TrEMBL record:
Domain RecX first three-helical residues, every copy: 10-48
Protein family according to the UniProt entry: Belongs to the RecX family.
Keywords recorded for this protein, A-Z: Cytoplasm
Subcellular location: Cytoplasm
The keyword Lyase appears for this protein: no
Top-level division of the source organism's lineage: Bacteria
Species whose genome carries this gene: Pseudoalteromonas arctica
Every RecX third three-helical domain range: 99-147
Single GO cellular component term: cytoplasm
Record function comment: Modulates RecA activity.
Name of the coding gene: recX
One Pfam family per UniProt: RecX_HTH1
GO biological process: regulation of DNA repair
The name this protein goes by in its record: Regulatory protein RecX
Length: 150
C-alpha cells in the first residue's frame, strides 16, 4: 500500500469515529471493504486504541444505553450483541454496572404502547401484547409484571 492510500484510509477511519462509536471489529470490516492490508489495519486500529479513539467498553456502554432508550429487554440486547459479536463478558459487566430495573423497563414499554387502549381485553389481545413484549426481549415474569401494572 502506498503512503497516500494509507493517509486516506486513516482519515476515513477518523471521520467515521468523529460521528459515532465503532467497535474494532466493525472498523476492520469497513477497512477490508476498502481493500486495506491486514497489517495496516492492525497498525491503524492499534494507533486508534492508543489515542483512545476506539474503546470497546465505551462502545458497549453506548450500545446498551441505546437499546434501553428504545425500551428493549435483556434478551433482545443480548441477541443484538451476538449479531455484532460483542464480547459476552464485557456486555454482562456493563449491564451489571448500569443496574437496570428490567421490570420497570418492561412496564414503561408496555405503557408507551398500550396506555391509551382499553383495560379489558380478550385472550387474543392479551396474546398479542405478550408477543409484543417478548419481541422486545422481556421475560415472562417481566411481561406479567408490566401487564398487571396497568
Amino acid at each position: 500500500m502506498d503512503e497516500a492510500l494509507q493517509k486516506k484510509l486513516k482519515n476515513y477511519v477518523l471521520r467515521l469515529l468523529a460521528r459515532q462509536e465503532y467497535s474494532r471489529r466493525e472498523l476492520i470490516l469497513k477497512l477490508q471493504q476498502k481493500e486495506a492490508t491486514s497489517e495496516f489495519i492492525d497498525a491503524l486500529l492499534d494507533w486508534c486504541e492508543e489515542h483512545n479513539f476506539i474503546n470497546e467498553q465505551r462502545y458497549v456502554e453506548g450500545f446498551v444505553r441505546r437499546h434501553i432508550a428504545k425500551k428493549h429487554g435483556l434478551k433482545r440486547i443480548q441477541s443484538e450483541a451476538m449479531g455484532k459479536r460483542i464480547d459476552r463478558a464485557l456486555l454482562e459487566s456493563v449491564i451489571e454496572s448500569l443496574e437496570i430495573d428490567w421490570f420497570e423497563l418492561a412496564q414503561d414499554a408496555y405503557l408507551k404502547k398500550y396506555s391509551n387502549s382499553q383495560d379489558d381485553f380478550d385472550h387474543k389481545e392479551k396474546a398479542k401484547r405478550v408477543r409484543y413484549l417478548m419481541y422486545r426481549g422481556f421475560s415472562y415474569e417481566q411481561i406479567d409484571f408490566a401487564m398487571q401494572a396497568q
